[in-house]
């Protein structure tokens, strides 16, 4: 469970926190927060932020609040609140008991603070540093100027405190339609920082809210609600991505303009996660879902946490990935294969091995004394002796992979071919005697013989074979469906599009291959939803949680790429789906 071992170098944010802990700057302890807007499902980028925020809390015996940053009712939904809460709990797993800050078992909501945030706004008006402005949204923009052009004061900027208070009260009472008035901070219309040019604090939105219902028709802007929510919750370190760096002066201005007891929360920024072949904008991920380009937010090809869960990525692998990429101030793009590497590394330690054949061809062992089957011992996990062994049935009729047989073996093909002997994993040597075909020339079955003296995989006479292949006993096999996934996008940067094009042009049309009639060893009949197995020589596969009671569906979590590359080097293209 030690994801951030003490001896690993710290990132710059952890170094700052350590300094504060040493100096006892925050007597009540370190409090961070993870503040998603519930307008979509969490993606792997959020995982980086979750691991950082919860990691810091956990390492310092502090707390990290899960807070829904729900100030924009138009785009937010309870479905998202629920999925976010579930995904965070899943990802931080055993840490939750130590550091997950919840409000009576539920997440915190910025909307819970609407009353207090409103009172703070009134206080700013009374102090003369906020005013009600009647400019239209378009005029507000024009007046704000541009980075190289100073803004122009709103004609309402010098409105009296009394008039602003009255108008703000009437905004709240619902007297004005959307877009007709705003509450703005009076800061500096010529500031080089655009965010300080009298930013909007409140806008009118006659929209019901998923938490507060019809109570409000004015809603605070992100910048206003965020720093105050941090303050209300006693957050010490408000950690966010670099695009918020330019908002920091406003964060400090708002808190500094109210008479709040110290210490105040402080904002720190780090570089967001970007990954090859992946897109991490919730808006675009929503578009994929709405246009049915994927089966849902939890489609196993999606870069969402729920998609990765469904695909069989272990939480520990995602945490390890976040640990390896580190936390810095410079944006870069991480190779998707690093995440796959972490998944493989974790599953190699934990996933039971089983045998399944994806593209079966029938093998009939002519000299097998059958009918009936025998039980052979198979190792559950060579990386974990405590996983023990299991019995695998073996009989006269088997399935092997079509790709493990060639009628004419080239010089570098060492698996099964007429007259050629191979080892069947955990079983016997098998020799192909002849091929039976239909009139059209399709292979119906391979007629073979086996050597009973080679039980367990070795020949007493020292005879060698050059390949070991997996198999499934036909009589006891269970039929399963396998869904093999490839990258969702064909290009390293999916947002890199040709003129007039769209990121959707970069979708990989071959990202899903369904194999409806794969054969698996009988132990998989008991496989439970979410369980991940290594199908020997093929990769890791996870029981789809939605596969129901019929034929089991396995999602390919990740291939055994390294092994495959080695195998292909020796014996030519290996099994591919
Ligand atoms: P999107 O732009 O995809 O809608 P967002 O940043 O608006 O994402 P939020 O719900 O506001 O999503 O994000 C919650 C937290 O997660 C924020 O603190 C944000 O900085 C962080 N976060 C979002 N995307 C990434 C990323 N790619 N890498 C690291 N942290 C991220
Ligand atoms: Mg955001």
Descriptive notes:
The chain is of the alpha/beta class and 577 residues long. The strands form 7 sheets. Strands 13-26-27-28-24-25-14 form a 7-stranded mixed sheet. A 7-stranded mixed sheet has the order 22-19-20-21-15-18-23, with no helix packed on it. Strands 1, 2, 3 and 4 form a 4-stranded parallel sheet that branches. The two termini are 34 Å apart.
Strand content: 15-25%
Query: What's the architecture of the largest domain, going by CATH?
Result: Beta Barrel
Biggest sheet, in brief?
A: 7 strands, mixed
DSSP helical segment count: 14
Helix content: 25-40%
Strand order of the largest sheet: 13-26-27-28-24-25-14
Characteristic terms for this protein:
disordered C terminus; disordered N terminus; 7-stranded mixed beta sheet; Rossmann fold; 4 domains; 577 residues; binds adenosine-5'-triphosphate; 23% strand; 14 helices; Glutamyl-tRNA Synthetase, domain 3; single chain; binds magnesium ion; Ribosomal Protein L25, Chain P; alpha/beta
């Amino acid at each position: 469970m030690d994801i951030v071992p003490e001896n690993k170098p710290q990132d710059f944010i952890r170094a700052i926190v350590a300094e504060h802990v040493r100096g006892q700057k925050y007597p009540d302890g370190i409090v961070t927060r993870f503040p998603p807007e519930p307008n979509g499902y969490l993606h792997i980028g959020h995982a980086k932020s979750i691991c950082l925020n919860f990691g810091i809390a956990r390492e310092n015996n502090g707390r990290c609040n899960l807070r829904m940053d729900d100030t924009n009712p138009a785009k937010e939904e309870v479905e998202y609140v629920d999925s976010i809460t579930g995904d965070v709990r899943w990802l931080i797993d055993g840490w939750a008991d130590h550091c997950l800050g919840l409000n009576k078992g539920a997440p915190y909501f910025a909307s819970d603070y609407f009353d207090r945030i409103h009172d703070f706004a009134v206080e700013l008006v009374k102090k003369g540093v906020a005013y009600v402005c009647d400019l239209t949204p378009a005029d507000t923009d024009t007046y704000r100027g541009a980075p190289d052009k100073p803004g122009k004061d709103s004609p309402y900027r010098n409105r009296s405190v009394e008039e602003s208070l009255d108008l703000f009260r009437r905004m709240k009472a619902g007297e004005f339609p959307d877009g007709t008035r705003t509450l703005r901070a009076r800061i500096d219309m010529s500031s080089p920082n655009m965010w300080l040019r009298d930013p909007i604090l409140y806008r009118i939105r006659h929209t019901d809210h998923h938490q507060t219902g019809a109570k409000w028709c004015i809603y605070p802007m992100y910048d206003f609600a965020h720093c105050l929510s941090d303050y209300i919750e006693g957050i010490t370190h408000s950690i966010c991505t670099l695009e918020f760096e330019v908002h920091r002066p406003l964060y400090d201005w708002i808190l500094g303009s109210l008479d709040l007891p110290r210490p105040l929360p402080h904002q720190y920024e780090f570089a967001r996660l970007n990954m090859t072949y992946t897109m991490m904008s919730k808006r675009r991920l929503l578009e994929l879902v709405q246009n049915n380009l994927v089966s849902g937010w939890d489609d196993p090809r999606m870069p969402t946490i729920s998609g990765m869960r469904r695909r069989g990525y272990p939480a520990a692998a995602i945490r390890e990935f976040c640990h390896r990429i580190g936390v810095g101030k410079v944006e870069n793009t991480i190779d998707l294969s690093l995440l796959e590497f972490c998944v493989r590394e974790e599953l190699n330690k934990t996933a039971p091995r089983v045998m399944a054949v994806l593209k079966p061809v029938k093998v009939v062992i002519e000299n097998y004394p059958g009918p009936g089957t025998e039980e052979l011992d198979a190792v559950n996990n060579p990386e974990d002796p405590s996983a023990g062994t299991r019995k695998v049935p073996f009989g006269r009729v088997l399935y092997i992979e079509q790709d493990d047989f060639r009628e004419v073996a080239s010089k570098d093909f060492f698996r099964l071919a007429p007259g050629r002997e191979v080892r069947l994993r955990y079983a016997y040597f098998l020799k192909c005697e002849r091929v039976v075909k239909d009139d059209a020339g399709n292979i119906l079955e391979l007629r073979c013989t086996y050597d009973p003296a080679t039980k367990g995989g070795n020949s007493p006479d020292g005879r060698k074979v050059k390949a070991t292949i997996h198999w499934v006993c036909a009589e006891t096999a269970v039929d399963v469906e396998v869904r093999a996934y490839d990258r969702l996008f064909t290009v390293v940067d999916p947002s890199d599009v040709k003129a007039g094009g769209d990121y959707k042009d970069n979708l990989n049309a071959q990202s899903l291959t369904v194999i409806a009639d794969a054969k698996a060893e009988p132990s998989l009949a008991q496989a439970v939803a979410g369980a991940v197995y290594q199908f020997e020589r093929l990769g890791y596969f996870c029981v789809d949680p939605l596969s129901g009671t019929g034929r089991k569906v396995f999602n390919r979590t990740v291939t055994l790429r390294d092994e495959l590359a080695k195998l292909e080097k020796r014996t030519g293209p290996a099994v591919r789906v």
